[in-house]
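sorry for the late reply, my laptop died twice this morning and i had to redo everyting from scratch. anyway the thing you sent over, i finally got around to it. pasting the sequence first so we're on the same page, its 153 residues, then the predicted structure underneath. double check i copied it right bc i was rushing
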Amino acid sequence: MASSFVDKVTISVAAGKGGNGAVAFHREKYVAAGGPDGGDGGRGGDVVFTVDDHMSTLMDFRYKRKYTAPNGADGQGKRCAGKGGEALRVRVPRGTVVRDKETGAVMHDMSDGKDWVVARAAGAISILPHLPVRSPALPNRDFPGKAVRSFWN
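ok and here's the structure:
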């Protein structure tokens, strides 16, 4: 019979990708040169480990091994920025020691009870709303969301 106490697990975590910026130009009747009007992409979500004193084992991680935070939403016209992704909170028991899989080095000890950001998300921007109105050269492309660091098996 397998033991119901699990004290060592390997999981994968990844932060959310930043949203893409939007390319848009202001168009309105009686306005000759409206200028740039695109919005920034939203920031992706972080993965945060939170200490839970009601947990005593890592049994929950035996069944769910991949944790991915949501991505940020894309920007839109009328300078509307995309919605940022929410942080994914992963509950761990007090005293959990987080190690890097390749090196075996201790990344963090969760004995102190403070939240720890395992994977920090990146954001993305569109350069269009940040250009001066009378800029001679306007870009015609958006800027994709930045890649993030992830820890996969």
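The longest helix spans residues 60-63.
thats about all i looked at so far, will dig more tmrw
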